[in-house]
Amino acid sequence: MKSKFYSGIENINGNEFYYEYFKHPSAGPTIIMLHGFLSSAFSFRKLIPHLQEEYNILAVDIPPFGKSGKSKRFLYSYQNMASSIFELTDRLQISNMILAGHSMGGQIVMNMLLQRPAAASSALLLCSSAYLPKSHQSLVYTSYIPFFHLYVKRHLAKSGLEKNLKNVVYNQAMIDEDMRKGYMSPFLNNSIFQGLTRMIRHREGDLTEEDIRRIHTPCLLIWGEHDRVVPLSKGKRLHKNLPNSKLIILKETGHLVPEERPEEIVAEMKGFLSAVSV
Description:
- The chain is an alpha/beta fold.
- The chain has a single domain (4-134, 161-193, 205-276), classed as Rossmann fold, CATH 3.40.50.1820.
- Helices cover 39% and strands 19% of the residues.
- It is built from twelve helices and eight strands.
- An eight-stranded mixed beta sheet has the order 1-2-4-3-5-6-7-8, sandwiched between helices.
- The longest helix has 15 residues, at 262-276.
- The chain is globular.
- The mean pLDDT is 93.
- One of its GO terms (cellular component) is membrane.
- Keywords: Hydrolase.
């Protein structure tokens, strides 16, 4: 049986949340997919086809990224993003959940696991952001300068899309026009830079080791051996601090594991979910 595809926008806590919902006619659990910083649900494009035959899938654009809103009234903290995702799943009447997050999305997943420990049966953390402190206070103060968002725009433009893509994949030959267009699209709306400015102010920093140790949900950690964004050393530290976790290391792989190793991720994920459901 094929999944039915829906997309929609829900206004939650003063911002628009765009989502793509692949609803399977007979599947039980729903995998909630949360992308990383400067990305969108596009980053799961290679994972979804392998999973939608067995699971419901809800892929969300986290504000201010992708097709979601860039509201100046929204609180861009991880805690608020986590509670807002729960509000979205409540509205869509999703209760049987598996949480999956890449990079920044993994940090939001861990915040969700702390807020509602019983909400998800398991979690998948793909090169999850971890142990990153909040923005320096001087940068937070500077962000209130008028037109600071233009500085953010210039800073990101200076590094350039091509350089950023080369930084997140191990095999740079895989970068093609589809990737370039998909990862460029979130930046075609200039208001994203105002949202990023507010994120600098509101982001509270990653969870502490003490908080992480309180998460007892079964977690599968998948890391690229050559991750230059969130180094493998952080993955090993996270595995040590998460009481009920398993770490898989993918050889010849960088940070963008959903693009680089979708088949391996799906195989490891299905094996993990089968084991924890016994």
